[in-house]
Amino acid sequence: MITIRNTQRRIKINTASVKKDAQALLDALNYSDFDLGIWFTSNATIHKYNKQYRNTDKATDILSFAYHPTLKAGKRIKVKSDEDKNLGDLIIAPEYVMNDLPKWDTTFEKHLQRLLVHGICHLLGYDHIKDADYEVMRKREMTLLKKL
Predict the structure, then answer these.
(1) What is the DSSP string of 44-78?
(2) Alpha-carbon distance 121 to 66, whole Å?
(3) How far is Cα 93 from Cα 81, in angstroms, rounded to an integer?
(4) pLDDT value of position 138
(5) Among positive and negative, which fits the CA dihedral 120, 123, 124, 130?
(6) CA of 83: how far to CAs of 32, 36, 56, 113, 124, in Å?
(7) What is the mean pLDDT of each run of 10 residues along the chain (148 residues)?
(8) pLDDT for position 80
(9) Whole-angstrom Cα Rg for the chain
(10) CB of 15 within 8 A of CB of 39?
(11) Does the model's pTM come out above 0.85?
């Protein structure tokens, strides 16, 4: 089940569209019946989480909290119980995303799709710390974006 929570009020979010996109991505990944949480929040709140969990004292566009944090990129989640059918949670700051748009030369909706793909890739073990890892993640993201 996809759970969407929107506690910010500055930017209008089409949650039905986000949910549809998220489900399309889960379907494409063969995780259709997995849980995914998406929380739209303020810059102040994401700043707090970024500082607490990443030691980075500023707001950001998205944070990913994987339910299976040791999963390696490209590997399948091994389900041993219904509880394991969970990808994790994404926290997104729409105001940050909106303010960041000029550098991406795209619409808010398209950038939100890109971030959704990016966040889900992180939940599945992909990362971009090293250049080689970035290339693998980027390739996966491009494949998934085509599904939307």
Answers:
(1) HHHHHHHHHHH---S--SEEEEESSTTPPTTPPP-
(2) 10
(3) 32
(4) 87
(5) positive
(6) 15, 12, 31, 27, 16
(7) 96 96 96 97 97 96 96 92 96 96 91 95 86 80 91
(8) 93
(9) 15
(10) no
(11) yes
